[in-house]
Each structure stands twice: as structure tokens, then as C-alpha cells.
Amino acid sequence: MASSSPHIFEDKFEVIQVDPDGKKFEKVSRIVCHGESYEMELVLDVHFGLFKCKVGEKINFALTSTIDPSGQKEDNTYDQRERKTLMDGYDYVMHGRVFQIDEDKKT
After folding, report:
1. Backbone torsions φ then ψ of 46, nearest 5 degrees
2. Are 86 and 71 within 8 A, CB to CB?
3. Whole-number Cα distances in Å, 55 to 15, 18, 30, 73, 99
4. Backbone torsions φ then ψ of 88, nearest 5 degrees
5. What is the reported pTM?
6. Beta strands in 1-107 (DSSP E)
7. Cα of 43 vs its chain's centroid, Å
8. Rounded Cα–Cα distance for residues 60 and 89 (Å)
């Protein structure tokens, strides 16, 4: 059975604000970004000790269903064998759930 692309969403974003409401946690910063291809805003909490970015910098953002480049679904465990994954193409990778999606109803 053929696998589909693991990418659900992908775009390049420009960081427009860092910690707009002030710093809430010692190691975490909230970045607010604006997408290049889609007119959308991305608000993301990142470990600022590992991923430092400044206003004006551009980041590549991808939302995927798996880290397997072929799109094959993973089981519930992380396989630490040395193999190629989608993570190889990024400086900072997070795993988890999307907390909130706010949709602009403008037409």
C-alpha cells in the first residue's frame, strides 16, 4: 500500500514579535509570526535556550503526521535507530498536539 505525504501544512514565516505579553516562563518564549504563502498568523511557544530567534528572522514551519519521509505512520514509540527522518531537515523539532486553531471568518 502506498503512503501519502506526511506534510499536513508547510510555509515560511517571519517572526514579527517575541514575548508580546512579556516573559511568562524562564526557558520558553512565545513567538508571533506571519506566513509568506498564506496570510496567516502563527503563535508558537519555543524553548528559547535551544531555539533563539529575533524579530525579522524567517523560519520554515512544517506540520506533519509522522517523521517518516515516506509518510508511513509510526507506532506509539520513538525508534532511536540512526535512520533518515523529516527531523534531519530542521534545526528545532517539537512533538505534541496543536493546542488551538483560531479561524478568521473573513471572506
Report:
1. -130, 155
2. no
3. 5, 7, 12, 35, 23
4. -60, -25
5. 0.77
6. 7-18, 28-35, 41-47, 58-64
7. 10
8. 10
